[in-house]
Specification:
mainly alpha
């Protein structure tokens, strides 16, 4: 039996309209074994009036968890308050790996700044200007040792990478190859 035929048979057996009053569309789709969009389309075909967002949230509310919503929280201990204050004031020593491959500061005044920029700024004793950028000599964005970093203008940096790209063009087609040349 094909998926569409199966969903029609199952939907008639389960009485979707009755189930839809107390169950989310996602749960119905899971029970039937089809996607949410298929369930939605089938309900529209059957003439079942779909819920508005407010009604859908009312049904989903018990599954969302109440946590401390609408309840008085117990007082925080002094130790917890001290830890929160320390985390807010501690300089950016913690970093996270961004999807781009760079390490980013997550704490203090440096929060949101890339680690390689912070290292160069400390080395030169000032913040970088808008026309300056930091180049990773070995092209490894996670290698932020001072020996691997080089301060240059944005135009110099663009020129450097353009030269590297020229060296990795395919001889026959003239297109760029996938790799990166480490020599300039």
């Amino acid at each position: 039996m094909k998926g569409r035929e199966r969903s029609i048979v199952i939907s008639e057996e389960l009485n979707l309209e009755e189930m839809y009053r107390t169950t989310s569309m996602r749960d119905i789709a899971k029970k039937i074994g089809v996607s949410v969009s298929t369930t939605r389309r089938r309900m529209i075909e059957m003439g079942i009036k779909l819920r508005n967002l407010k009604d859908a949230l009312q049904i989903a509310k018990p599954k969302m968890g109440s946590g401390w919503r609408g309840k008085k929280r117990p007082p925080m201990s002094e130790e917890t308050k001290r830890k929160i204050a320390a985390a807010r004031t501690k300089p950016g020593e913690r970093f996270r790996l961004k999807t781009s491959g760079y390490l980013e500061s997550t704490r203090g005044e440096t929060s949101g700044k890339s680690q390689h920029r912070l290292i160069i700024e400390r080395a030169i004793g000032r913040e970088l200007m808008s026309h300056e950028c930091v180049h990773h000599k070995d092209h490894n964005r996670a290698n932020n040792s001072i020996e691997n970093l080089e301060l240059m203008s944005r135009s110099e940096h663009s020129r450097l990478h353009a030269c590297e790209r020229k060296k990795i063009r395919d001889e026959k087609t003239g297109r760029f190859k996938g790799g990166v040349s480490l020599t300039v």
